[in-house]
Amino acid sequence: MLELTNSVISIDQNKFKNFESYSVTKTGATTNYGSVNSDLSLTVNSLHRLIVSRQDLRPISVLIKLHSLTRVTNAIDITSIDNVTNDLRFNISYHFQSTTTNTRYILTTRTSESMPVLSLQSLYPAFNWTERETWDMFGVFFAKHPDLRRILTDYGFVGFPLRKDFPLTGFREVQFEDTIKQVEYNNTELTQSYRLLSFNRSWSANG
Q1: CA quadruple 56, 9, 3, 91: dihedral positive or negative?
Q2: Domains in the chain with CATH codes
Q3: What is the pTM of this model?
Q4: Long-range contacts of 27-30 (CB under 8 A, 24+ apart)
Q5: 135, 116 in Cβ contact below 8 A?
Q6: Among 89, 67, 70, which Cα is nearest to 80's?
Q7: What does the alpha-carbon distance between residue 115 and residue 171 come to, in Å, rounded to a whole number?
Q8: pLDDT, tens digit, for every residue of 73-83?
């Protein structure tokens, strides 16, 4: 049986260049879809989470799409978490579904703002907009994406709003100026009295 639950999977990238030349171990038998150094078993009507390296994300995505025991057909969503204190600060999770086995798969990988993730858009076109959304909100760059533009924020937006180090007020404010009948962009300015923090009392203005 093929078990993918909570498996950490590693693939020999050199072997993967010749996709048909290596195999997945399945209780002593082999198939023609990849070499995985983990015991794999399949259960239907369930959820399986795989933690994979950034380099192995696309090979594993190909594997679960083409393997006869997984047969992933749907790309559901991409979710992200920013752990700002870690070197690999972004946890990127791809959500898949197999309608044949009624099984869901989550591939999770880690990356940083300077390390691109290889796009899965060519394998699953539904990931086009969700990868753009992840780029727009977190600044995770997807290599070989055909149209990696912002999708939710406005033109000229500065920064990535769902990063933990992004200020809650943002950098610029937008307003419609009725006198000139157009939208204006201004730097954010917050006016408030100076505050001192004392552990013996709550915040108070001017001490």
Answers
A1: negative
A2: 7-150 (3.30.460.80)
A3: 0.69
A4: 27/1
A5: no
A6: 89
A7: 25
A8: 999 999 999 99
